[in-house]
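TASK: fixed-backbone design
INPUT:
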C-alpha cells in the first residue's frame, strides 16, 4: 500500500505527464515515465537505506509540495542585484524553479558557448536526447526519479571544443517561500567539449523566508582535456528543504573541481558523483557545511575510479552549533583495472556545542593493487591549547573562539577560485558563525 506522501507525488507526476505528453518528443515522455515508475518502485528512502542512514526525509515526503508559477517582485529583483556576479558573463535566473528572462542575461555570448533555458531547448530538441539522463539515471534515487518525472525546466550549458570561456556562467535559483510550499525541480545539463574551459556557478538562495522544496539535478559530460570548475552555494531559508545531486562523467585527461558551500535549509543534502570514464583525469572535491539551530546538513560523495592513472583529492569540513547535525558519507571506488590511482579523502568536523552532532563515514573500496589511497575523518571541539594561547595575549574567549572557528572554515572558502563568490560566502558566514564579525574586526 502506497503511503499518502508518496501518493501525492505520484499523482502529481501522472498529471504532469498527461498534461505535457502531446507536445513532448518520445524520448522525453519515456524519461518522465521511467521517473514515475522508479519513484513508485523505490518509494522515499528511510533510515533502513544505508545511503540515508542518518537522514530522515519524512519532513519532505510529509509535505504536499507543488510546482508554483509566481510573478517576480521587488524582493526578487533586489536579491538578483545582491547575488549577481559582476562582469558581462551570462546569467540565468529562476524563481521557484521557473526561468525569468527579464532578470537574466543571455545576449552577447562568446563564440562556442550556448546558455539557455532547458524548457526552451527541449522544444527544439537537438543534442539533449543524448545528454539528459545520461549520467543522472532515474534509478539512482527516489529524488532523481522525481526530478525526471517532473522534468521541464532548468538550464542547458554547452561549450564547443577548444572554447575557453573568459567569464563564469551563473545559474541563480531563488525561492520566494511565502509559505506557499513551492516545489522546484530544475535540471541542469552541461556539455564541455574537448579542451574547453568553463567556470559554472549554481546559487540556490532564499529571496524570502518560508517553506519550499528544491529538488535539483545537475549532469555534466566533460570531453577529453576539458576543464570545469563547478561552484555551488546553497543558502536557502532555514525553513526550506533542498536535495541536490551533481553527476559528472570525465573524459581522458579532463580536470574537474567541485566546491560546495552548504549553509541553508532545515534539511539539505548535497551529492557529488564523479566517474572517470577514461584514464588521466583529475578531480578535486571541496565542501563546507555550517549549521546551527536544528539544521540537518547531509553530504554524500562518490568517486568512481574506473580507469588507470586518475587522481582525486577530497576535503569536506563541517561547523555545527546548537542542535545542528551534519553528515558526511564519502566513497572512493577503485576498480580492478584502475592501476596507479591516487586518491585522498578527508572529512573534518568542528562541534561548537554539546548538543551538536556529526556523522562521518569515509569509505575506500580498492580492487586494484598498484594504488596510493588514504582517507580520514575527525570530529572534535576547538583546541584548548590554541584558545589558551590567544587568551594569554589578551584576546577575550568569545573572540578567540570566533577566530579559530573562522580559521577552520577558511581552508575551504579560500580554495574557491572566484573572488566575488568568496566574498559572498564570507558575508554569509559573518552572519552564520558565532561572533564571526567581532572575531575578524
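OUTPUT:
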Amino acid at each position: 500500500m502506497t503511503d499518502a506522501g508518496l501518493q501525492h507525488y505520484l499523482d502529481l507526476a501522472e498529471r504532469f505527464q498527461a498534461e505535457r505528453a502531446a507536445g513532448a518528443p518520445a524520448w522525453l515522455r519515456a524519461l518522465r515515465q521511467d521517473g514515475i515508475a522508479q519513484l513508485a518502485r523505490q518509494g522515499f528512502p528511510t533510515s533502513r537505506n544505508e545511503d540515508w542512514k542518518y537522514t530522515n526525509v519524512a519532513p519532505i515526503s510529509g509535505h504536499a509540495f507543488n510546482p508554483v508559477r509566481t510573478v517576480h517582485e521587488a524582493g526578487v529583483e533586489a536579491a538578483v542585484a545582491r547575488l549577481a556576479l559582476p562582469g558581462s558573463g551570462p546569467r540565468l535566473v529562476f524563481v521557484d524553479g521557473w526561468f525569468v528572462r527579464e532578470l537574466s542575461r543571455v545576449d552577447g555570448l562568446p563564440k562556442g558557448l550556448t546558455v539557455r533555458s532547458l524548457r526552451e531547448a527541449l522544444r527544439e530538441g537537438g543534442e539533449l536526447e543524448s545528454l539528459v539522463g545520461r549520467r543522472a539515471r532515474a534509478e539512482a534515487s527516489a529524488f532523481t526519479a522525481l526530478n525526471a518525472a517532473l522534468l521541464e525546466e532548468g538550464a542547458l550549458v554547452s561549450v564547443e571544443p577548444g572554447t575557453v570561456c573568459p567569464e563564469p556562467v551563473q545559474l541563480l535559483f531563488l525561492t520566494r517561500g511565502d509559505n506557499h510550499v513551492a516545489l522546484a525541480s530544475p535540471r541542469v545539463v552541461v556539455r564541455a567539449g574537448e579542451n574547453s574551459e568553463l567556470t559554472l556557478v549554481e546559487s540556490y538562495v532564499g529571496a524570502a523566508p518560508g517553506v519550499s522544496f528544491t529538488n535539483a539535478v545537475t549532469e555534466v559530460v566533460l570531453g577529453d582535456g576539458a576543464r570545469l570548475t563547478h561552484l555551488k552555494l546553497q543558502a536557502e531559508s532555514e525553513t526550506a528543504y533542498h536535495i541536490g545531486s551533481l553527476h559528472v562523467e570525465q573524459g581522458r585527461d579532463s580536470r574537474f573541481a567541485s566546491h560546495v558551500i552548504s549553509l541553508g535549509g532545515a534539511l539539505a543534502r548535497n551529492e557529488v558523483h564523479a566517474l572517470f570514464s577514461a584514464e588521466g583525469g583529475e578531480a578535486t572535491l571541496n565542501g563546507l557545511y555550517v549549521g546551527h539551530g536544528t539544521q540537518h546538513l547531509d553530504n554524500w560523495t562518490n568517486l568512481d575510479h574506473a580507469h588507470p592513472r586518475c587522481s582525486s583529492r577530497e576535503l569536506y569540513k563541517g561547523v555545527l552549533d546548537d542542535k545542528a547535525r551534519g553528515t558526511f558519507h564519502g566513497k572512493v571506488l577503485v576498480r580492478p583495472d584502475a592501476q596507479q590511482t591516487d586518491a585522498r579523502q578527508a572529512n573534518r568536523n568542528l562541534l561548537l556545542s554539546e548538543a551538536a552532532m556529526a556523522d562521518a563515514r569515509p569509505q575506500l573500496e580498492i580492487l586494484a593493487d598498484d594504488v596510493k589511497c588514504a582517507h580520514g575523518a575527525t570530529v572534535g571541539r576547538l583546541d584548548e591549547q590554541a584558545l589558551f594561547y590567544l587568551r594569554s595575549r589578551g584576546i577575550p574567549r568569545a573572540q578567540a573562539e570566533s577566530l579559530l572557528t573562522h580559521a577552520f572554515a577558511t581552508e575551504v572558502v579560500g580554495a574557491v577560485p572566484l573572488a566575488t563568490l568568496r566574498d559572498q560566502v564570507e558575508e554569509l558566514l559573518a552572519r552564520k558563525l558565532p561572533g564571526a564579525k567581532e572575531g575578524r574586526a
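COMMENT: The first strand starts at residue 91 and ends at 95.
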